[in-house]
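input
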Amino acid sequence: MNRPLHLLFLCTGNSCRSQMAEGWARHLAARWPEPWLEVASAGIEAHGKNPRAIAAMAEAGVDIAGQDSTRLAPEMLDWADVVVTVCGHADEHCPALPPGVERRHWPLEDPARATGDEPAVTAVFRASRDDIRARVEALLAELRRRWGAGVR
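output
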């Protein structure tokens, strides 16, 4: 069956890191002319969207305001071809994946835990956004090389 690759980003609360990763993956995958990737994100819990994550992504030209903060459901794991946990808590509490689903882990610090004045916290969100972009770019390049476009 020829269909797009399904990529799921998983975090604790689906409010910052996984939301940014989903936004970057959608944005960067659009570089290719054919639809080869479908992306989602979820949390072990759903904490709602973080306004600072939305603002940091908007500064980079990526709108994540319309994404939902979603709690992980079993059917999401059945849907996924690749699951990327973006924090230690999600990695530790990720349910067993169905056979054939690839799992990756990115131990990202939570920008929502940043302290200090507003410029200092904003800088942490920007650094997290940029780190996630670099990781997503590398992942998408690898997935394109390995699986090509729509070959699942």
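quick obs: The CA atoms of residues 53 and 142 lie 26 Å apart.
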